[in-house]
Amino acid sequence: MRSLDRYLRDARLARVEYQCFEVPLSQRGERLGSLLTLDFRESSKGLSSAIVACLQIPEQEDPDLIEEATRELMNFDTRYRLAVAYGRKPPTT
Q1: Cα dihedral sign, 27-28-30-32
Q2: CA-to-CA distance for 26 and 33, rounded, in angstroms?
Q3: Cβ neighbours of residue 73 closer than 8 Å, sequence gap 6 or more
Q4: What is the mean pLDDT of residues 49-64?
Q5: What is the reported pTM?
């Protein structure tokens, strides 16, 4: 993930800053953690056919698998790592 700040430096930005955050999923992560958990569940539903094909499971098992995975995210202190990098345009002379 450190490549984010390198891309900005390569683009000649000044005062590049980089921070990494770990957000607990579910209620432990407050509003952002709850949103990320919901995003995981809903995107998994959208990828249902790919999940079924990859895992070679019957299609009717997929909703149960998604719900179980969501429960595990909430019960096992799962964390999502976010990286933020930003910089400023260099002053022009």
Answers
A1: negative
A2: 5
A3: 25, 26, 37, 40
A4: 89
A5: 0.64
